[in-house]
C-alpha cells in the first residue's frame, strides 16, 4: 500500500524539524525530482509516521489538484527511518509572504488563496479528518510566478480522524492553536477553521495575529483583544479601513465567523466557500491592494494588533 523499492539521490535539504528533515531528491529510476520527508528513527517519530501514512492513504481518495492537497507518492525505508515521497512544490506560503516585505497580500491574491485553502479543508473534513496543524509553513505555493497563485496543503503529521480526537490532545502550533485546546474542550474540525482564520489575518497583515511564548500568553491575548463579537460596528469605523464596498464588510464578517470563540458556532469550510466574500462581483488583479492596504499600515508590527480587533470585534 504505497511502499516503494527505489533509490533516491539527495540534491538539497529543503527544511528540518522535530520529525526529521525534508530533502529534494531525484528518483534514480524515473529521474523525477521529488520531496522526501525523512522521519527520524526514534520510536515516537516512527509511530507518528505510521499514523501519517494511514491518513495519507485515506487522502488518496481525493484528487490532489482539485482538492489543493499535496500529492503523496508512497513511502520507503532507509534503515530504521520511514521516508515519505511527495510531489515537489515551489515554496511555502510563509516564504512567499516574507517576499512581500511583510506587508501582506493584496486582496486580489488573498481571496483566491483563501478559497483554495477552504476547498482543501472542505475535502479533508468530508472524509472526517482534522488536519490539526494548518499554518503558512504547511501551505505550499505550487509556482510563485503563476498568477493567481496556486497553493496546496501539506504535512499531515499531526492529522487525525475526528473519531480519535480526544480531550486533552496537544495538537497544532501555539500561534495557530484554537482556544478550546487550552481550555480542555474536545476537539473537532472547528480547530482547523480557527487556524484558517489566523492564516487569513496573517495574509492580510503580513504578521501573526496571536504570537506568544505559552498557551497562557496566547489565550490571554485572545480574551483581551477579542471580547464578545458584536454585529453593530459603526459604519465610520469600516470607512477608515480602506476596504471597498462590499469587501470591507465581507472580509471582517468572514474573519469573525472563523474566529468565533465557541467552536460549535464557528463557520465550516463548506460554509466559507459559500460566503459572500467570494461573490462580491468585480474581478481583481493580483496587484489590487484593495482591502488590505490600511490593515498593513495599521500593523507594521505586532505592537498594534489591537487595531484589527477594534475593527472586527468592537
From TrEMBL:
Keyword Acetylation part of the UniProt annotation: no
Q: Return the Gene3D superfamilies for the record.
A: Phosphorylase Kinase, domain 1, Transferase(Phosphotransferase) domain 1
Gene Ontology MF, one: protein tyrosine kinase activity
- Where the record annotates domain Protein kinase, the positions are 8-278
Give the binding site residues for ATP.
Answer: 37
Pfam families (alphabetical): Pkinase (PF00069)
- Gene Ontology CC entries for this record: cytoplasm; nucleus
The record, for SMART domains, names:
S_TKc
Matching entries from InterPro entries are given as:
Kinase-like_dom_sf (IPR011009), Prot_kinase_dom (IPR000719), Protein_kinase_ATP_BS (IPR017441), Ser/Thr_kinase_AS (IPR008271), Ser_Thr_dual-spec_kinase (IPR050494)
Q: Which UniProt keywords apply?
A: ATP-binding, Kinase, Nucleotide-binding, Serine/threonine-protein kinase, Transferase
Instruction: Give the protein family.
Output: Belongs to the protein kinase superfamily.
This protein is called what? Protein kinase domain-containing protein
